[in-house]
Write a structure and sequence with these properties.
six-stranded antiparallel β-sheet, signal-anchor, golgi apparatus, about 40% helix, glucuronylgalactosylproteoglycan 4-beta-N-acetylgalactosaminyltransferase activity, transferase
């Protein structure tokens, strides 16, 4: 009885659920069915600014497209009103899919390249590991491959560390540390620098031109400090074993070494191997010394970036301040046209000349968005290769470029007389007797306008020439921008007679005179000029001796 009643209750509930489902289905069909209308869809519902149609101006109508429309061509008359909208929409979707496919293909190519690179690295690590271990058995390799991922990662890290240590030991064995190598000539020698606690004695004097100085660069100070600290730690830490000595000869020093015991050190860097340091300390007696040899090996090369840079769409605004000097300006404009520049704008200021003021006005006069600026002078010669270098070494918000230009000596002194001076294009030769790298000049620079504005621009209170470029350079050095400083083989400073006005302040006048002295000729050429009377007297005596002692025939 109870079972029969339960069955009846279940059947009623089932019928009610079936009826409810049918009602919901019927309601869904009625709600979702499209309305019956003769108007074609999307004919006027998209609106003039619908993002899919690209409209930003007037709406679509009268068989024409507004100024901001997609521009799919003229509309055919006689068709339904929505056909053109469908065509535009389909074309946009097709273009989107085409761009997406192109992006996917590019990503696939990059992934393939990365996979090949990783495969080569893994192959190299495995081969070096086999050489170090002597070659594992085949069964051992198979068994290791079947173990868990954690063990495999640990073994991979260990093998990489072993491979790196083997590479660094190889760098030490290849460098000139324990033995020398045969060199082709005296020009192939890598010289040492010597240093003490306070001074560095250097052959490559850099911008300061000091043969001895306190380490100015932060990386050099930290480098030598780290070397001295490690040397003292090694001297004051008892060693468990000493190289090439037996157990009977092992002794523990009673002297505690300090920086005051350091006498001097020498260091040199082989660019492809590493840096060698030899440090000498006072020993326990006056005739005893301690010498430590340290070596910092260079690691293997690492690829940091691989990118394609298109400079065809990067315009450059060249800004040149000018006061008189029309002859130089005529020569500059000739070069200007040679590198395919055609448009220029003249901004005239009726005020006392200031180079920084002129460049600042020229940079701020441009209002058409961010642009690459090249601050130049009228006595500068550049070619198209330099302009590409300018584009490649700048990046808005990241990099500014300060090229080191090649400054030309006085052509009259170089070629002997004004009659023998060739045309300007033939004078642009980079040799020690024709000019020098002007590494103390910071007037030529490439940067984006946004970086120049954000950094604060020039100090326009500086009048005349000189000083404003150094202030701007220091502003960039104190910022987070990367300053690229490198010699540029396509940028030349043409020689001209330099006049240092008496109205200049003492510091600017001194800078002007130093620049004037360096611009005339090389050290050897100036020496020949200084001793020319002595040389001429020697030649006269030689000629007199030849005339007084004629050869017997």
């Amino acid at each position: 009885m109870l079972r029969r009643g339960l069955l009846a209750w279940v059947s009623r509930v089932g019928g009610i659920l079936v009826l409810l489902c049918c009602s919901l289905s019927l309601l869904y069909v009625m709600t979702c069915s499209p309305p019956h209308s003769d108007d074609p869809p999307l004919s006027h519902r998209a609106g003039p600014n619908h993002p899919s149609l690209g409209g930003t101006g007037p709406g679509i109508g009268a068989g024409a497209i507004g100024p901001g429309g997609a521009g799919a061509g003229p509309v055919q008359s006689g068709g339904p009103p929505g056909v053109h909208s469908y065509q535009v929409l389909l074309q946009e979707r097709e273009e989107q899919h085409r761009l997406h496919i192109s992006s996917l293909k590019k990503q696939i190519a990059q992934l393939k390249e990365a996979l090949q690179e990783r495969s080569q690295q893994l192959k190299g690590v495995q081969e070096s590991l086999k050489r170090a271990v002597g070659g594992p058995a085949e069964g051992h390799e198979v068994g290791a491959g079947l173990q868990g991922g954690g063990l495999g990662d640990a073994q991979g890290a260990k093998s990489q560390q072993t491979d790196l240590q083997e590479f660094l030991r190889g760098q030490l064995s290849k460098a000139e540390v324990t033995a020398g190598t045969r060199l082709s000539s005296e020009y192939a020698v890598v010289p040492f620098e010597s240093f003490t606690l306070q001074r560095v004695y250097q052959l490559e004097m850099g911008l300061t031109r000091h043969p001895e100085e306190k380490p100015v660069r932060k990386d050099k100070r930290e480098e030598l400090g780290e070397v001295l600290e490690m040397a003292l730690h090694s001297l004051n830490t008892p060693s468990s074993e000493q190289d090439s000595r037996g157990a009977a000869e092992k002794t523990q020093t009673s002297k505690v070494y300090s920086p005051s015991d350091f006498i001097e050190g020498i260091t040199r860097t082989e660019k492809d191997k590493g840096t060698l340091y030899e440090l000498t300390f006072r020993g326990e007696s006056s005739n005893e010394f301690k010498r430590l040899v340290l070596f910092r090996p260079f690691g293997p090369l690492m690829k940091v970036k691989n990118e394609k840079v298109d400079t065809s769409s990067v315009p450059i605004n060249i800004i040149v301040p000018l006061s008189r000097r029309t002859d130089k300006f005529r020569q500059f404009m000739h070069n200007f046209r040679e590198v395919n520049f055609k448009n220029y704008t003249l901004l005239q200021l009726d005020e006392e000349f200031s180079r920084g003021r002129g460049l600042d006005v020229g940079a701020r006069a441009w209002k058409a968005g961010n642009v690459l600026l090249f601050f130049c002078d009228v006595d500068i010669y550049f070619n198209a290769d330099f302009l590409n270098t300018c584009r490649l070494n700048t990046q808005p918000g990241k990099k500014v470029f300060y090229p080191v230009l090649f400054s030309q000596y006085n052509p009259t002194l170089i070629y002997g007389s004004p009659e023998h001076v060739p045309p300007v294009e033939q004078q642009l030769v980079i040799k020690k007797d024709t000019g020098f790298w002007r590494d103390f000049g910071f007037g030529m620079t490439c940067q984006y306008r946004s970086d120049f504005i954000n950094i604060g621009g020039f100090d326009i209170d500086i009048k005349g020439w000189g000083g404003e470029d150094v202030h701007l350079y220091r502003k960039y050095l104190h910022s987070n921008l990367l300053v690229v400083r490198a010699p540029s083989r396509g940028l030349f400073h043409l020689w001209h007679e330099k006049q240092c006005a008496d109205e200049l302040p003492p510091d600017q006048y001194r800078m002007c005179m130093q620049s004037k002295a360096m611009n005339e000729a090389s050290h050897g050429q100036l020496g020949m000029l200084f001793f020319r009377h002595e040389i001429e007297a020697h030649l006269r005596r030689q000629k007199q001796q030849q005339n007084s002692n004629p050869k017997k025939t």
